[in-house]
Design brief:
The structure holds 2 protein chains of 2 kinds.
Chain A: E1 4-6, E2 11-14, E3 19-25, E4 32-38, E5 45-51, E6 54-58, E7 61-66, E8 71-76, E9 85-92, E10 99-100, E11 104-109
Parallel strand pairs in A: 2-11
Antiparallel strand pairs in A: 1-3, 3-8, 4-5, 4-9, 6-7, 7-8, 9-10, 9-11
Chain B: E1 4-7, E2 10-13, E3 19-25, E4 32-38, E5 44-51, E6 57-58, E7 67-73, E8 76-81, E9 90-97, E10 103-105, E11 109-113
The chains are: A mainly beta, B mainly beta.
Chain lengths: 110, 114
């Protein structure tokens, strides 16, 4: 079993829809949770950063962490074609290395 | 703007040759930088941690003699893939730590070994 599980998709939704992306994990020691966006043939770009459980909102993006269920989510409201990318979840224990999900490929259809 | 740059952005080489990839921290003196490899439709896998002025720390299963890392200055780390083979073809990405314990990634280097 992988430490971090993420549905690779692909996921296609119409423009303006709410997108829900999720990851589950097995290591209860993970403390820091991140979402990265990666456009094709580019490096990952940090979108959201959360410590421990709770919600965090930044513009159209909301990150949720449920440590009791070992489940994290990223919601994108009013999705735009420019949101089409691969979204990677990542998590970490303290200062240890980041563990990534495989990424979900998202396409927003105009 | 970008805080980490990589050069080249893509490279094609013949099997058996060596390829050097540069990673630069543009806005911050980074004592530690990280090298990742990403195969198509797979996650980023940490290869090694590059430490300025000392030896790199390699992850289990990564051949240190094949993937040479040099971190000679606070703004530059290099990864040299020695005697490259087709199975080394991948997307290589470097990163540096950010102020809030996050990581900022470079744009990546796509290596194709023929």
């Amino acid at each position: 079993q992988k430490e971090v599980e993420q549905d690779p998709g692909p996921l296609s939704v119409p423009e303006g829809a709410i997108v829900s992306l999720n990851c589950t994990y097995s290591n209860s020691a993970f403390q820091y949770f991140m979402w990265y966006r990666q456009y094709s043939r580019k490096g990952p770009e940090l979108l959201m950063y959360t410590y421990s459980s709770g919600n965090k909102e930044d513009g159209r993006f909301t990150a949720q962490v449920d440590k009791s269920s070992k489940y994290i989510s990223l919601f994108i409201r009013d999705s735009q074609p420019s949101d089409s990318a691969t979204y990677l979840c990542a998590m970490r224990v303290g200062n240890e290395k980041l563990t990534f999900g495989t990424g979900t490929r998202l396409t927003i259809i105009p | 703007g970008a805080v980490v740059s990589q050069h080249p952005s893509w490279v094609i080489c013949k099997s058996g040759t060596s390829v050097k990839i540069e990673c630069r921290s543009l806005d911050f003196q980074a004592t530690t930088m990280f090298w990742y490899r990403q195969f198509p439709k797979q996650s980023l896998m940490l290869m090694a941690t590059s430490n300025e002025g000392s030896k790199a720390t390699y992850e289990q299963g990564v051949e240190k003699d094949k993937f040479l890392i040099n971190h000679a200055s606070l703004t530059l780390s290099t990864l040299t893939v020695t005697s490259a083979h087709p199975e080394d073809s991948s997307f290589y990405i470097c990163s540096r730590a950010g102020a809030t314990d996050t990581q900022y990634f470079g744009p990546g280097t796509r290596l194709t070994v023929l």
